[in-house]
Amino acid sequence: MEMYMAISTLNSFNMAWGENGGRFDWQPAQYRQGWATIGDVPPSVEQFNALHYLQDEKANFLYRQLADVVAAAGKQYTETEVASLLTESIREIIKTTIGETKASSQTAGIMKVLNTLGSTATDAALSAAQGKALNDAIAALNALLTGYTANSYCPSGQIGLFATDYAPTGWLKANGAVLSRTVYTNLFAAIGTRFGAGDGHSTFNLPDLRGEFPRFWDDGRGVDAGRVLGSWQSDAIRNITAQMYLYGQDGSSSQGAFGFRKQGERGLVWSRNDNNAGVVMDFWLDASKVVPTAHENRPRNIALLACIKI
């Protein structure tokens, strides 16, 4: 009785079905047509052998190519390692072709993948997960900026100071002008008629800040009590009081803003000691003797253009 050994997967690539038996010589046209080429006649053993032989030869060809790669890499594989054969071969090809060269903007090579956005490495690439995280962050930022235009980050009604003699785009001079409530809807919603009601129904007034100093609203603190937001306040100074004592012709004197001068013997000023007629004098208060003066009260300042955001 003839004994047969089982065929292993790897060994099967070293043989082909029907290679030692008779095989039908299929022509290309017949092969493409399939079984229809013989009609209703049952196929012969030789025809079957030829077909299976062709299939095995195709598989054997691919196996030999892969085996050459394995041999070139100096590897030996068993049937249990067949699954990793292609991966190992590709690694060997990469190593042989480009070695351990690191990739750069100018050179192809190996580059590690990072799963973080916080790295400053120049020889690494982002993972797909971090690429998505970055894309999501950009999309969220764009959503926040939707509808924004130049200067739109400032709210309507904001007061700004500029070193130009014209209002920038998106701003108006704070000069008390009368505006339409419908054209400047956002600005009217912000300040209303706080600085003037215009014609009372279709217009309103801008604040007139020309030549004025701003004072921050007291808002209940009590330093500038009773003020309404946007109200105007005139200038004022603290009250100045003083006293002067006269002692006749030679005893009188003045200091600071007070001054005097003798007018001659008139008998209108009496001496404290002898009740004799003293010397008549003119007295005055002149603040310019001790501080700079003008027709108004003001601190040191610089002129800038006040504007309001539309």
What do you see in this structure?
Mean pLDDT is 78; it is low at 265-277. The protein is 25% helix and 15% strand. Among the domains are: 11-93, no CATH class; 167-230, heat- and protease-stable fragment of the bacteriophage t4 short fibre, domain 3, CATH 3.90.1340; 248-289, no CATH class. The protein is elongated. The strands form four sheets. A three-stranded antiparallel beta sheet has the order 3-9-4, with no helix packed on it. Strands 1-2 form a two-stranded parallel sheet. A two-stranded antiparallel sheet has the order 5-6. The chain has helices at 28-33, 45-72, 85-98, 128-145, 185-191, 248-251; strands spanning 112-114, 124-126, 159-162, 171-173, 178-180, 203-205, 258-270, 277-285, 305-309. Strand 7 (258-270) and strand 8 (277-285) form a beta hairpin.
